[in-house]
Amino acid sequence: MHPKLIKLEETFKASILTKIDEPLCDQFNIELWMKRDDQLHPVISGNKWRKLKFILDHALHIGSDTIISMGGVYSNHLHTLAYVGKALGLKTIAYIRGEAPALLTPTLVDLTNWGMELRFISRTDYRQLRHYKGYLDLPGLKPQQYWLPEGGAQTLALNGVAELVNEIDISYNYLCAPCGTGTTLAGLIAATPDNISVLGFAALKNAGFLNTDVNSLLKQTQSNWQINLDYHFGGFASSTPELLSFISAFETKTTIQLEPVYTGKMMYALFDLIRKGHFSRGQRIIALHTGGLQGDRQRRL
Ligand SMILES: *Cc1c(COP(=O)(O)O)cnc(C)c1O
Hints:
By secondary structure, this protein is an alpha/beta fold. It folds into two domains: 3-45 and 156-300, Rossmann fold (3-Layer(aba) Sandwich), CATH 3.40.50; 47-152, Rossmann fold, CATH 3.40.50. The protein has helices at 3-9, 23-27, 46-61, 76-88, 106-113, 123-129, 157-167, 183-191, 209-217, 241-254, 263-275, 297-300; strands spanning 17-19, 31-36, 66-71, 91-97, 117-121, 145-147, 174-179, 197-202, 225-228, 284-289. A six-stranded mixed sheet has the order 1-2-10-7-8-9, with helices on both faces. It has a four-stranded parallel sheet with strand order 5-4-3-6. The longest helix is centred in the N-terminal third of the chain and has 16 residues, at 46-61. It is globular and about 60 Å long. It starts with a helix and ends with a helix. The model has no long low-confidence stretch (mean pLDDT 96). It binds pyridoxal-5'-phosphate.
């Protein structure tokens, strides 16, 4: 590991396991825990760090001085990349989907303050960028520039996710995570033995493609995983009053903050599945809190 990354990680807090005390779990004799990657760092978003760590290590070792990536106007990926890039002395450039909004989102304000260069592009051009998967694939890349696909979707990302699995020091039956690109989920699958079921919860609507994408990130075929596509609440940026009231009730009870794009949907889904008797009695479930609360700042104003 590059010394700069070791030094940065020394400032992190441990991602602990928190037990969710909830009458519903007692009623169905289920133990529900959260792995608190939201606590790793006050700014750096949990799963985005896990995914970036080994990619940045690679970039630093080959002498890159600039990381170029892409994302939306609330992107947790870009937020983490900009902050970490500044901390490591790397220049960062981001292609942002759509026109520059008249009023910058809190995310875009941070990106700008941390020195990230923002390039707003049309949705068509943005989609085109998704075809470039490898770190040298972006057309027109200059020497020492490193291309990082959307959401940090790269096989190197899986190594960092494996570290979080290795930190878990209790036995368990299920490991759960919300899915955007499915890269985090692929990392969990690759790092868990066959007797553990890994469950993904898609944040996007019509996310059947995730099964193919996750499979292509895995080096070997595994069958101990599933992606639930039913709890998208209308799509990626959508939510419902029901979801939002679940989140605020959960926060009041547990003092753990959730956001409505990823972790809120996953926790809603888990409660719903427990209530419907989906899990057999005596099972222990660990849900990964992936962080991402920065993207929810406007709603909370
Ligand atoms: C990006 C993100 C995810 C999804 O991660 P993928 O690896 O793209 O599936 C989940 N939760 C949060 C908070 C995120 O920011």
